[in-house]
Amino acid sequence: MDDFNIKQINLDQIDITDLVNESLSEGHRHISRLLEEYSNGENRFSEEGEALFAVFLKDRIIGIGGLNKDPYLKENSIGRVRRLYVLKEYRKLGAGRGLMDRIIQEARKHYTAIVLNTNNPVADKFYSSLGFSNHPTYLNSTHYLPL
């Protein structure tokens, strides 16, 4: 779908209630944790090399995902994909791929590799299709992509 618009966002000015509610109904807590950690200042995606992005369809947010310095590693050359989620009705239409392309583009400016952690077989297939290796090479990660 060509109507997707991906923007860097600040959660203080954006309502992600639809994403939180749908993700919880699917048994995923990571988007509610995103909101909690952003609100309490634990993770605001505001350090050098960090960013939070949303996928918009017109004025509706249909997906979200962020990039952090990997908090589990002492080196600053590894980024971590965090809190990626796309509303169910927009999956397999290119929203997630576009969001990841934007995250990878940003990561290339700051890191030599990016990592992530998932135990979801559908997510594993998605990340593998983007070129991620699913070998546990880095601490607390299931996938990595050299940049």
Automatic annotation (TrEMBL):
Keywords: Acyltransferase, Transferase. The keyword Cell membrane does not apply. Residues 4-147 form the N-acetyltransferase domain. It comes from the Bacteria. Gene3D superfamilies: 3.40.630.30. SUPFAM superfamilies: Acyl-CoA N-acyltransferases (Nat). GO terms for molecular function: acyltransferase activity, transferring groups other than amino-acyl groups. InterPro entries: Acyl_CoA_acyltransferase, Bact_Acetyltransf, GNAT_dom. Pfam families: Acetyltransf_1 (PF00583). PANTHER family: AMINOALKYLPHOSPHONATE N-ACETYLTRANSFERASE-RELATED-RELATED (PTHR43877). This is GNAT family N-acetyltransferase. It comes from Paenibacillus psychroresistens.
